[in-house]
Design brief:
By secondary structure, this protein is mostly beta strands. It contains 1 helix and 20 strands. It has one domain: UDP N-Acetylglucosamine Acyltransferase, domain 1. The chain starts with a strand and ends in an 11-residue tail after the last helix.
Length: about 180
């Protein structure tokens, strides 16, 4: 569902899929070929959220922005199920694992991977092309070519899924009552 708030309203490209069970509130910009999953909450009520082309915001993700600031999510970013993003920037091609938390004013560099459940703390910066995990998130290793191949495949899956949802849509099924 899309909501105008305090004179601010979402701007969504026609090739982006936004689930009807997602909540997109206020100053949110969603780029081309994005996937915004079921139950996601994007709160652009006192800050701005910008999601770059080809990014996937999976089910149950919560995104917010600090007051009068921008939470800038780059192109072809994958944000796993149940992640919480309150940071300021995620670079192009980065991956945020399921259940990860990016705290206020944190940054994740281009091509970096935050492992499942990782906690990027207040004002912490993750360097480009590094894999981080834990609480607080620490560098575990460099991103490998095999990581990039796997995530490029996953990113394309969500781009294709967004197109399919737009093409065929979902059909509600009302269950038959028990006799």
């Amino acid at each position: 569902m899309l909501f105008r708030f305090d004179g601010r309203e979402p701007q969504i490209q026609k090739t982006a899929y936004v689930s009807e069970t997602a909540q997109v509130i206020g100053d949110v910009v969603i780029g081309e070929r994005c996937y915004i999953g079921h139950g996601a909450i994007l709160r652009g009520d006192y800050g701005r959220i910008v999601i770059g082309d080809g990014s996937a915001i999976e089910e149950g993700v919560i995104i917010h922005a600090p007051p009068d600031s921008v939470n800038d999510i780059g192109k072809k970013v994958t944000v796993g199920h149940g992640a919480i993003l309150h940071g300021s920037r995620i670079g192009d091609g980065a991956v945020i694992g399921m259940g990860a938390v990016l705290s206020i004013l944190s940054e994740v560099g281009e091509g970096a991977i935050v492992a499942e459940g990782g906690i990027v703390r207040f004002n912490q910066s993750v360097p480009p092309d590094k894999v981080v995990g834990g609480n607080p998130a620490e560098i575990l290793r460099d991103v490998r070519d095999s990581d990039r191949l796997l995530w490029d495949y996953g990113k394309q899956l969500y781009i294709d899924l967004a197109a399919k949802y737009l093409d065929i849509g979902m059909e509600r099924i009302d269950p038959d009552p028990l006799e």
